[in-house]
Structures are given as C-alpha cells and as structure tokens.
Amino acid sequence: MTALTPCLWFDTEAQDAANFYLTVFPNSRITDITYYGEAGPRPAEMVLTVEFELDGHPFTALNGGPEFSFSEAVSFQIDCADQAEVDRYWEALTADGGQESMCGWLKDKYGLSWQVVPRRLVELLTDPDPGRAQRVMAAMMPMRKLVIADLEAAAGVS
Predict the structure, then answer these.
(1) Is the bond into 41 cis (omega within 30 degrees of 0)?
(2) Sign of CA dihedral 82, 131, 139, 103
(3) Cβ–Cβ contacts within 10 Å for residue 17, how many?
(4) Which residue of 1, 32, 74, 132 pairs with 51 in a disulfide if CB–CB is 3.0 to 4.6 A?
(5) Burial of residue 131, with CB atoms counted within 10 A of its CB: 0-12 exposed, 13-18 middle, 19 or more buried
(6) What is the pLDDT of residues 97-134, one digit of tens each?
C-alpha cells in the first residue's frame, strides 16, 4: 500500500506546531525542513514544510498562509491504554490555549482536533449486552475528558 501522510496547513506556525507535537508524543522526530525560495509566494527563507513523525507516523506541516484553517470535520484519534495516558494527552494538548470539547474531543492551541479515547471505551460500547453499552454511551455524552472509572460505573462493571 502507498504510504499516507497527513499534511497539516498552518499560516506561519508549522515549525512551532511540529516542535510542540514532538513534546506530546513519544518516539517522535523532525525528519526534514524545506524553505520558500525567491520564487515565493511567501518570503524567501521562511519555513515551507516540516516533515516529522509522531510515534513513527509521518506528518507534514505546511506554512501555506491564512486562507485555510482546521475544522472538527477532521481529527486524529489517540488510542490510550489507560486513564494515565488519557490524562497525559488531554493535559498536554489542551495546554496553552487548547480547548476541551465533548466526548473526548479537544482542539489544541493550533486549532487541530484530537480524540483522546481509552481502549476501555470501545470494549464497553461493544459489550454484547445492549443495555450496558447504552448506559456507557449515555455516561460518555456529557463528558469532556473521558473517565474510565465513570464509564465502568455506568456499565456496572469494574
């Protein structure tokens, strides 16, 4: 299969954003930086793209200009093993101007949307008992950050 690389459009914050994401995700690194030249359309020597990896997954950050911005129509889902991981990603991504949303969704300080999802939620929502799964869904809907203990309590399990 051909590799897929998300390209994230920023106005001028591509390098700052990439550096921020490297502090949030383990095993991450910048792999290349390119710059605008004399041909433009932005000032020569301004960062054009930052190629980087987040925990081994490739991304490109582009300083494309103010014409486009992020929306909740596209988000990145973080599969979290436990509550400590949920808490860590939630705190890091909402820091310095990030915004909490509903049901485990948030926007980071650059406006990029993330879903911080514990694996346990998927287990509970796919429970063979439809009543249990519905109680979990009802408990999840008003939450901002997902709390595994509260989801399990709604399901009647621990």
Answers:
(1) yes
(2) positive
(3) 21
(4) 32
(5) exposed
(6) 999 999 999 999 999 999 999 999 999 999 999 899 99
Numbered ranges of CATH 3.30.720.100 in the chain: 1-68
Q: How far apart are CA 114 and CA 142, in angstroms?
A: 17
Report residue 67: phi and psi, to 5°: -65, -30
**Cα separation values, 59 from 5, 8, 48, 129, 156, Å:** 5, 8, 14, 39, 40
Residue 53: which of 12, 88, 21 has the closest Cα? Answer: 21
pTM of the model: 0.93
Distance CA 119, CA 65 (A): 37
The C-alpha angle 36, 40, 46, rounded to 5 degrees, equals 35
Task: Please answer whether residues 45 and 99 qualify as being in contact, where contact means their C-beta atoms are separated by less than 8 angstroms.
Answer: no
Whether the CA torsion 143, 148, 154, 155 is positive or negative: it is: positive
Q: Which CATH class is domain 1-68?
A: alpha beta
Domain 70-157: CATH class, spelled out: alpha beta
